[in-house]
Design a protein that fits this description.
The chain has 212 residues and is mostly helical. 79% of the residues lie in helices and 0% in strands. The termini are far apart.
Amino acid sequence: MTDSDDWAVRTEAQVLDEALKLAPAMGWTWPMTYAAGRAAGLSRPETELLLPRGPADLAALLSRRLDAEALARLEAVDPAGLKIRQKIRTAVEARLEAAAVYEPAVRRWAGWCALPLNLPLAMRLLWESADVLWRWAGDVATDENHYSKRAILSGILCGALAIRLAGGHADAMTFVDGRIDNVMTYEKWKAKLRPSDLLHEIAGALGRMRYG
């Protein structure tokens, strides 16, 4: 990593720290982005250079921070000793609790992600999060299972976060348990799942994040 890359990574983290303080009141917006950059010591042009897509760049940074913090929570867990259901439940719970640390800002972030123009990025970030958690769980599939597993987990993550924000931890984990128990195994779930079902589920969860 070059010095300039190192500076960018450090400064992005600093701006995100400030954004998490400002977003509950200002929303996930360009004015919030500029204010966060200013609080981190950047001028407006410097903020635009570092974060050319403004709130979209900050949204991606937050999602990836939550992924990293979920993995940190999972360091003490040996996935090899868990059944697949337990692995996914544990991984989803860690991701939800990482988000809960920043709940006021995450609420505004989730609402921003649910806007129609931002759905492509939201879907990509969900996929990234699902991939991170499946890799922690030891998934090494390279065939179509690689994609179906991540698609399924994306839906669980989205729905669980919406419920976590609306009803709290217990309700979210009841939802996660129910989604797993509904089909007994992931293989049965995968066999029944249609792409249109997954898209409908994710769209519904994003709508709940936006409108409550």
